[in-house]
Amino acid sequence: MQRLDSWEAAHIIFGGDMNVTWDRLLDNSGTAPTQTTDKAKHLKTLCKHIDIYDSFRYMNPTSKDYTFYSGVHKTFSHIDYIFTSQSLLPHIQKSEIKDIIISDHAPISLHIQNPQPQPRSFNWRFPSYLSHSEDFKQYVKTSLANYIDDNLTHWDNPNLLWAATKPVLRGQITAYLAYRRKQFNIKYMTLQQELSQAYIQLKNHNNKETQNKYKEIKNLFDTLLTEKAQLSLDYKRNKYFRWGNKTGKLLASITKKQNLQPHIHKLQGKQGWITDTKKITEEMTQYFQSFYDLEQDNPTEGIKFLQEAHLTKLTIEERNLLNAPVTETDIQTTIKKLKSGKSPGPDGLSAEFYKILAPELTPLLLDLYNNTLQGLPLWPEANEARIILLPKKDRDPTNPQSYRPISLLNQDLKILTKIMADRLQPILPRILSPCQLNFTKGRHSVKATRQILALIYQHNIEKRKHGILVNLDAEKAFDRIFHAHLLRILKFQHFGHQLLKLLRALYSTPTAFLTINNLNSDRFYIKKGTRQGCPLSPLLFNLALDPLLRHLRQNPLFQEFTTKHLCHKIVAFADDILLFIGNPKQDIPIILETINRYTTFTGLKMNYDKSEAIKLRHTATSDWTHNFPFKKAQHHITYLGVKFTDHHADTYKLNITQTILDLQHELNKWKTASLTFLGRAYLIKIFPHAIV
């Protein structure tokens, strides 16, 4: 079974006698539940890792049936299984356990309907694998130059010129690929016919002349096939030879779970289960279209809240720097920073496309971007996004709410927003509250960890009577922020007209479509939220959240925690907010009132029933029971991946000890990896940092 971890296949079916029971209650005939064995734990871990499922239990989730009878113990158990990959689950018609007749094991039947071709959408994508071909690069550059020469009359309309540039180049690239395929096929068919004729002549007249002719054509035919395979094979070999044993993305990929394509095989709809791909897409589209609909705003309360927050305003120098025109240097520097190998937006043009044509595209983009900053509308397709859905950990995959939407934006828009994000980044540390640690230069999550540990330690040493930590849970925080609130923030803090114009352009009429199981949905409007995938998005979210953090931090009625010379009330890492509550009876009503007031004009929603709280030692029981709105953690809370209890000494056991066990498990998996000793050493250095 360990070999399955290295398989790459669309569908997997395998079965046999595993000699373990999966469910200790359902898979044994005994009355007393048995202990889960180590073998069963290993089997469950492996199945979760490679995303396979027990077909019988999937179709019969509560049935008690058995595949083995022990004559010695006089008991029945279920220890034989047929596992299938997730992609086959919708096509299972039934799975049954037959009678034990011939041997002491029962046969298992699995009926799978032959999967019908599912509807698919074609999403054009730039052939990044040709970015190393000099012939291809020269072809694309020549195509762009010819297009610009033919359309110089439209240079005064950058939006129109750029809107037509992309489809023209897509067509030219498609033609190039078609020509390559056609030339290969012609050569292939010609050599195949010549080889067939040479073979017939060799059979009829086996002499030196026919032997040499057959051998010559056979070598040409083999060379043609080898060259086709070598294009990708050489690049992969070179890539693995150069980077396979060095610290980097390729080596780090060994530590990750298999990157299986998320496949939604069924959803729980209002009328029952939905298994058809088209209907699943429609159901998801309805959910997200409803989710992104605009809600009631309260601008009067919003302005009042901002005035009370004592927000820091930009200086004239900062505003001038932020609103300066885009330069050619800005564009070319940003293009160099684009990460290769990333999924493109709806237009299919990846980072490699812009890197190949950076000098040629810069003049086009320069006029395009500066016109946008002056208040002109965005170019066509700029505000369109393709949304892919990533399943949330430990959530029901049949519930639409269990998926995180990630927006894939076009690279031309990301270049502009990245330029503005780089300008905004140095300004944020001065204007944001010091308790916001994420996406702020010079601030790190380790500060939050140290604050929490210091607070717990000081609380236990002094044996204080009151103390609670609360980890607030914000529901889809990035996707809920009102666009009107973002505009109010920028205007109130004097960000300048050009950034305001850009924000209005970005969030005036943004549209998106979902891609689910390779099928695109209908387009719908995004009426709220900062799109995850945009370089400006996390910075705008920090600005949007800052008034709430300042209100909580500055409220004199919210009692602070003190450790020596430091005071603690709140720490935030983007939307991950941790509250230090020193007087729960007095502080909790103030906190709830402030948050509820903030949500009326921002769209943010707090899940109090999912916000975990932990009572520190020596804290009075009444603080824990009196009108307590948060979920009470039984043993620990988790913040930024670190587990905290009411005693600082338990931190090592909960975190480091478990990390060591995980590392030992991974080391056993890496035994078969084709790595040098140096590569293994680097891998050991990478892995603990990735999981701590």
Describe the structure.
Pfam families: RVT_1 (PF00078). Residues 371-644 form the Reverse transcriptase domain. The protein is α+β, with helices and mostly antiparallel strands and 692 residues long. Among the domains are: 4-112, Endonuclease/exonuclease/phosphatase (Deoxyribonuclease I, Chain A), CATH 3.60.10.10; 128-259; 432-481 and 531-646, Alpha-Beta Plaits, CATH 3.30.70; 647-691. The strands form eight sheets. Strands 10, 11, 13, 14 and 15 form a five-stranded mixed β-sheet that branches. The longest helix has 47 residues, at 158-204. It starts with 12 loop residues before the first strand and ends with a helix. Mean pLDDT is 85; it is low at 233-244.
CATH class of the domain at 432-481 and 531-646: Alpha Beta
Residues in helices, as a percent range: 40-55%
Give the number of helices. 22
Task: Give the biggest beta sheet.
Answer: 5 strands, mixed
Mean pLDDT: 85
Question: Based on CA inertia axes, which overall geometry fits?
Answer: globular
CATH topology of the domain at 432-481 and 531-646: Alpha-Beta Plaits
Which structural class fits the helix and strand makeup?
A: alpha+beta
Strand content: 5-15%
Quaternary form:
single chain
How many strand units?
23
What is the CATH architecture assignment of the domain at 432-481 and 531-646?
2-Layer Sandwich
Distance between the termini: 29 Å
Calculate Rg over CA atoms: 31 Å
